[in-house]
Design goal:
Layout lengths: L1 E6 L8 H13 L3 E7 L1 H8 L9 E5 L10 H7 L4 H11 L5 E4 L3 H12 L9 E3 L1 E3 L5 E5 L9 H19 L5 E5 L10 H11 L5 E6 L11 E3 L2 H26 L3 H9 L1 H11 L7 E4 L4 E4 L6 H16 L2 H9 L2
Parallel strand pairs: 1-2, 1-4, 2-3, 4-12, 7-10, 8-9, 8-10
Antiparallel strand pairs: 5-11, 6-7, 11-12
Length: about 325
């Protein structure tokens, strides 16, 4: 049985989205057990509207909530009755607890993970690794996407190793193609950090390094994992998401601009809906924190129930396929 803790009070749509995602997971994954952490009275009242296996879905009471506007380290240290703090403590202290899913404050979750959960031996720094859809109907991972603003070349090498293992273990990608985010594709491009990292990645036998990648090529489908520092990765992810959302808005405006356009859109309705669903981040779960000693998945703050389910599914697949053990074996030398 894979035991997964869910911070039920984190995120903009809490606790509804977290409850919905937890129920979906219990009903779809037969060997997963979910522990919802949050206001017990409120959660149980909302759970009464669902059908699920009560033996595999339980509630741990937490009276407080950590707000995204609070200073992360202070919140984790002082709000010991909060749902996030109690979820982290449960994950830390419970030997049979495998993973944590949270859509709340990224800073507080990262602080809690570093201060209380710790790293796998040999890992210099944990890194966030979300995935995005590509134009060939596959996915690409980005590591790091915000946990580490400043990095050195050895940390970037570890991101490449951990990210490759993640794409293999969680998504079944054989021999993931790894690229280094840079300002050009030529080997000599970039600053000293990128040049040094390029040489190290090229000489790392455990990864399939294919060279530099420019940001405009993220969604082409030519790469399975992109390695970068957290500052550049965060900008890359958010600018790409923003551009895609604005293009969808423009497409909708164009399709409804005239009667002729509306008729054309009607004929393409099925294809457009499929495209919209394919590009919707809610269908891809969250960003995993690679390198932490327990599995942690951070969902988007505005995650819907289906997103929370996919976050739980990510955590389940990572645990089922032994990702943490694989990272430990590769890096604890």
């Amino acid at each position: 049985m894979i035991n997964i803790v869910v911070d039920a009070m984190g995120g903009d749509r809490s606790p509804d989205a977290n409850i919905e995602g937890a129920v979906l997971a219990v009903n779809k994954i037969s060997d997963a057990k979910i522990i919802l952490v949050g206001d017990e009275t409120w959660i149980k009242e909302k759970l009464s509207a669902y059908k699920y296996d009560g033996a595999r879905l339980s509630v741990l009471h937490a009276a407080e909530v950590i707000d995204c506007n609070e200073k992360p380290t202070d919140a984790i240290r002082n709000k010991k009755e909060s749902s996030m703090y109690k979820a982290i403590e449960l994950l830390k202290s419970g030997e049979d607890m495998n993973a944590l899913v949270c859509t709340g404050s990224t800073g507080a979750l990262l602080a809690g993970a570093v201060l209380k959960i710790g790293r796998i031996r040999g890992v210099k720094r944990p890194a966030f690794c979300p995935v995005m859809p590509t134009m060939n109907r596959k996915i690409v991972g980005v590591c790091d996407s915000g946990a580490n603003v400043d990095c050195d070349s050895l940390q970037l090498k570890q991101f490449a190793v951990m990210g490759s293992l993640y794409m293999k273990k969680a998504y079944g990608v054989e021999n993931p193609r790894v690229a280094l985010l840079n300002v050009g594709t030529e080997e000599e491009k970039g600053d000293m950090l990128r040049k040094e990292t390029y040489k190290i990645l090229k000489e790392t036998p455990s990864i399939n390094f294919v060279g530099n990648m420019e940001s405009r090529d993220l969604l082409k489908g030519n790469y399975d994992l992109v390695v970068c520092d957290g500052f550049a990765g965060n900008v890359l992810i958010k600018s790409t998401e923003g551009a895609c959302l604005e293009m969808l808005k423009l497409l909708k405006t164009t399709m409804t601009a005239s009667f002729k356009n509306k008729m054309g859109a009607l004929l393409l309705k099925k294809d457009i809906t499929e495209l919209k669903d394919f590009m919707d981040y809610n269908n891809y779960g969250g960003a995993v924190l690679l390198g932490a000693s327990k599995t942690i998945v951070k969902g988007h703050g505005s995650s819907k129930g289906i997103t929370v389910f996919h976050c739980i599914e990510q955590a389940y697949n990572m645990e089922k396929n032994g990702l943490r053990a694989a990272i430990a074996e590769e890096l604890s030398v």
